[in-house]
Design goal:
heterodimer; A: about 500 residues; alpha/beta; Amidase signature (AS) enzymes; eleven-stranded mixed β-sheet; 18 helices; 11 strands; about 40% helix; B: about 500 residues; alpha+beta; 3 domains; nine-stranded mixed β-sheet; 16 helices
């Protein structure tokens, strides 16, 4: 029973719960047990909230028994990236600075999850303040890729992706500033969507780069991601940049998966040199499948994407240098040197020096420099111009195609430690994902198979215009359907049922 | 102690150039970017929330009422109103800034390019306005254990974030040239006018002593005949109109002495010491701080429609200069009298007193003569005195009714200022009413006549003006509480 619960999708759990075939307490217990069994190896979670999760599960079961109207995901458990404020649990952002900080308020996302009846199991690991592509920058140790525990699960949301990929949670919330939902999804064989900027409230999401950050769903199937997307999205008056418009019909799109007549634009700049062979092989096979499903393939050019990485690594550090200024030890967080002999300024300096990791310091320094008087125009100013050019590239491309596609990442998951001393190599992980953050459009990553040379998951990225998030799901669902028809299951099922996935304890006898 | 040059001597050699930055704290019910209350004087840190405390993850939401107030102030300053503008982050580390950046406006202010006319000594000076922009206030640091209440020498500091996020409008002038020896008065009048205007708009309490109107006064000296600006200083801690004038006069004299001695003025912040009447050096600004301004990504641009701006323009009160002209005529004042009223910062107070029923001349007399003197003695502005226009009107009503005479009325005012209650209550409690009943006065008059037979003879002989001596004697007997007109009448009746 337990393996069945763990293998079930959120949509399946939803109908089983509604039919009374399983209780939320059973579902939550099964997942907490799975965490206890394997998280020592995976290290997806930074904190667990077992007591409150079970309380809420009991509450949902009682409400259901009393005949109350419940949302589709009521009683389904979820893992929350440790960047969302959630009363009663620390929100560390993977940083020593916030190791013991417990927020006195809930993020809008957290509140909406609770309103939808979703049950938060705990908070997941991440690169410190979401800066990184491997989760190795967490102050609390790296998360391991469930496909190969020696490899990185992507970042910054490696904890959320790994939790979903290792069946510790059917759903997770992530945040994506330059690829932190999509890149982990790609390298763990899961689904991850960055909604349109302004689609999901940022209130209560500890900011990395305000103009780029966006919360979004992590799941094992396209429909599950859409269900979670729908639960958390929508206008929030507490976030001035939140879009006051209805949520795009993502669930309907995920159910339909109809791409007939859809024009799919392949971005010529996102491929070729620097891309792993196996990634390109699986990506091209996926294109053929989408074509078979009725889509029309067109090639589009986005010439300014070449400058996206450079612009991103000016805009992000600039905003981050300002956003992270508040961690000054005066009101909360790590405080060093408060012994009555040091000035406030010295305490601030010592605390920040001790509380932040190398990557965080690197970006704060870059950002401080980029905003400095005399350098602003050359760096921050120019980067904003590039951003406009990238937006225009998207506009032109979307005139020719309904969605754009590319590999999500140039390579499959690399080994832990392999790129940690080479920031540029690390930054290049996000080459394909960054343009959508700069332009603010919707974008998702979907599994498209395993690279022949290393047997590791490959992701296909779908990019859609702002507020056309449903198109992302439509293409993702089509791809999932075509691939499942060939393999008899999703990409993640291949892990669950393989010997490499034995330790997960969720294998189904007789399946592949 | 600083060397000072004689003011007149400085003015023979230099032209002062002014630059005034005024912060107006808006009286919106809630803060600039969150729903917290803004009331002055609440217990520390009781008007805070995750947003104004800058807790991780929180976001600002702009207060629409603050934007409206900013636009109305901008219009009253004859400014252009931006059709599109943004907030910016001013980055610096300081414990009173919860986010370690101030959300402000930088190169895109809501209002810009205005001007106001300021009159002093019968001359009208044009003060050019550079900009009026929106920003949030910082929290308040309370330094404990030092002698001065400043950070130097303090044992520790306490933080009160009630003020953090309160909406401010900063109004910045362009350099003001050509004010000559009137520079300190022009500065004072400018701020007084601004205060009256903002009060008339109803968007702020504009109480300098509570900090809801704050002025930083910049001044530099330009050698006569030169067109090169000198190095300026910025004087802070100016808590009254009077201190603006005094501090500028001091700075002009100090800078004059520095320059005359061949020295150079240091570009710095100066701190005004009200009790001692001098400025002291604060932070040096020689190394300009780099605030790393950039557009605030957590807020969307402010784009007031032209229709809205036109609607707000229609709500503007009468401009101060026009209002002064109108009231001068209505009240029958001379221009000099009106200048005195304006100079004392008493225009609104006189108006309120007239509205409360006092004759304009009486209202002017009380505020400009009696009360201005007392404000001067206590070092506050007139409107900081604990007496209301309605109470002043009530005092005058007692005079008009003959209940008290002018001398007693001053004692009534003493009582009101001492917190003894309304004028009627003070009269009752202190027993200040004049005696006008014929019986008691008659006895005193008879006694006075008897004691001064030679004076009585003169009056009998027709020297009516000699009655003054007898009236004085009666007053002494009655402890000043006699109705002088009545006494005179009784004396003349008896001796005719």
């Amino acid at each position: 029973m337990s393996a069945d619960i763990l293998r079930a999708t959120a949509a399946e759990l939803s109908s089983e719960l509604a039919a009374g075939n399983v209780s939320s307490v059973e579902v939550v217990t099964a997942h907490l047990d799975q965490i206890t069994r394997i998280d020592e190896d995976v290290h997806a979670f930074l904190s667990l909230d077992a007591g409150r999760a079970l309380d809420r599960a009991r509450h949902i079961d009682a409400a259901r028994a009393a005949g109350e109207a419940l949302g589709p995901l009521a009683g389904v458990p979820l893992a929350l990236k440790d960047v969302f404020a959630y009363r009663g649990l620390p929100t560390t952002c993977g940083s020593r600075t916030l190791e013991n900080w417990v927020p006195p308020y809930d993020a809008t996302v957290t509140r909406r999850l609770a309103d939808a009846g979703l049950i938060i199991l705990g908070k997941t690991n991440m690169d410190e303040f979401a800066m990184g592509s491997s989760t190795e920058n967490s102050a609390f140790g790296p998360t391991h890729n469930p496909w190969d525990l020696d490899r990185i699960p992507g970042g910054s949301g490696g904890g959320s992706a790994a939790a979903v990929a290792s069946f510790m949670a059917p759903l997770a919330m992530g945040t994506d500033t330059g690829g932190s939902i999509r890149q982990p999804a790609a390298v763990t064989g899961t689904v991850g969507v960055k909604p349109t900027y302004g689609g999901v409230s940022r209130f209560g999401l500890v900011a990395l780069a305000s103009s780029l950050d966006q919360g979004g769903p992590c799941a094992r199937t396209v429909l599950d991601a859409a269900l979670l997307h729908e639960a958390v999205a929508g206008h929030d008056p507490r976030d001035s940049t939140s879009i006051p418009a209805p949520v795009p019909p993502v669930v309907a799109a995920a159910r339909s998966g109809d791409v007939s007549g859809m024009r799919i634009g392949v971005v010529s700049e996102l491929g070729g040199e620097g891309y792993q062979d196996g990634v390109e092989v699986r990506f091209n096979e996926a294109l053929v499948l989408l074509q078979k499903a009725g889509a029309e393939l067109v090639e589009v050019s986005c010439p300014h994407f070449a400058y996206a990485l450079a612009a991103y690594y000016l805009i992000l550090p600039a905003e981050c240098s300002s956003n992270l200024a508040r961690f000054d030890a005066m009101r909360y967080g790590l405080r060093i040197g408060d012994d009555g002999t040091h000035s406030a300024e010295e305490v601030m300096s010592a605390s920040r020096g001790a509380g932040f990791g190398e990557e965080v310091k690197r970006r704060i320094i870059i950002g401080t420099y980029a905003l400095s008087s005399g350098y602003y125009d050359a760096y921050y100013g120019s980067a904003q111009k590039v951003r406009t050019l990238i937006r225009q590239d998207f506009e032109r491309a979307f005139a020719e195609a309904d969605v754009l596609v590319s590999p999500t990442t140039p390579t499959t998951a690399f080994r832990i430690g392999e790129r940690i001393d080479d920031p540029m190599a690390m930054y290049k992980n996000d080459l394909c994902t960054i343009p959508s953050n700069l332009a603010g459009n919707a974008s998702g990553s979907f599994p498209c198979g395993l690279a022949p040379e290393d047997g590791l998951p490959v992701g296909l990225q779908v990019m859609a215009p702002a507020m056309a998030d449903d198109r992302v799901y439509r293409v993702g669902a089509a791809l999932e359907r075509e691939l499942s028809a060939i393999w008899g299951g999703t990409v993640i099922d291949q892990l669950a049922d393989s010997t490499a996935g034995d330790y997960l304890g969720v294998s189904r006898e007789g399946v592949l | 102690m600083d060397e000072l040059m004689d003011f007149a001597e400085v003015l023979e050699r230099f032209d002062p150039v002014l630059g005034l930055e005024v912060h107006v704290e808006l009286n919106t019910a809630s803060k600039m970017f969150c729903g917290c209350a803004t009331a002055f004087g609440a217990a520390p840190n009781t008007q805070t929330c995750p947003v104004c405390l800058g807790l991780p993850g929180t976001l600002p939401v702009l207060n629409g009422k603050a934007v409206e107030s900013a636009i109305r102030i901008g219009l009253a300053l004859n400014c252009e109103i931006a059709s599109w503008c943004r907030f910016a982050r001013k980055n610096y580390f300081y414990p009173d800034m919860t986010k370690d950046f101030q959300t402000s406006q930088y190169d895109e202010p809501i209002a810009y390019e205005g001007h106001v006319s300021v009159e002093t000594g019968g001359v009208v000076y044009e003060v050019p306005i550079e900009r009026a922009h929106m920003e949030e206030d910082a929290g308040k640091l309370v330094h404990v254990g030092g002698a001065t209440g400043r950070i130097e020498g303090a044992e520790y500091s306490l933080l009160d974030y009630n003020r953090a996020g309160v909406p401010l409008i900063e109004i910045v002038t362009k350099p003001v040239f050509g004010t000559g020896d009137r520079a300190p008065e022009v500065a004072r009048e400018y701020v007084a006018d601004l205060r009256d205007m903002v009060r008339a708009l109803g968007v702020s309490d504009v109480r300098m002593e509570q900090g809801s109107l704050r002025c930083d006064a910049n001044v530099s000296l330009m050698p006569k005949g030169s067109d090169t600006l000198g190095t300026r200083t910025e004087t802070k801690n100016l808590n009254s109109l009077r201190s603006i004038e005094r501090a500028l006069r001091y700075e002009i004299r100090r800078q004059g002495a520095v320059l005359a001695a061949g020295g150079r003025v240091t570009q710095e912040t100066r701190h005004w010491n009200e009790a001692g009447g001098y400025t002291t050096s604060g932070r040096s600004k020689e190394q300009a701080e780099d605030y790393r301004y950039f557009p605030e990504p957590d807020l969307v641009p402010v784009a007031p429609s032209r229709e809205w701006v036109a609607e707000l323009r229609a709500t503007l009160p009468e401009p101060p200069a026009e209002r002064r002209r109108r009231l001068t005529t209505e009240w029958g004042f001379t221009e000099a009298e009106m200048r005195d009223v304006q100079g004392a910062g008493a225009l609104d107070l006189v108006l309120a007193t007239v509205v409360a029923g006092a004759p304009p001349a009486a209202a002017r007399k009380w505020w400009v003569a009696e009360l201005a003197r007392r404000a001067n003695e206590t070092g506050t502005d007139l409107d900081g005195l604990p007496i209301t226009p309605a109470q002043v009107a009530a005092v005058q009503a007692l005079v008009d009714a003959g209940t008290v005479n002018d001398k007693l009325a001053r004692q009534v005012i003493d009582g009101v200022l001492a917190g003894e209650g309304d004028p009627a209550a003070v009269v009752a409690a202190r027993g200040l009413a004049v005696v006008s009943d014929d019986g008691a006065l008659g006895v005193a008059v008879d006694a006075a006549i008897e004691a001064n037979p030679d004076v009585a003879d003169k009056i009998r002989a027709g020297k009516v003006q000699a009655a003054g001596a007898l009236i004085g004697a009666v007053m002494r007997t009655m402890g000043g509480k006699a109705d002088a007109a009545k006494v005179r009448e009784l004396i003349l009746t008896r001796l005719s």
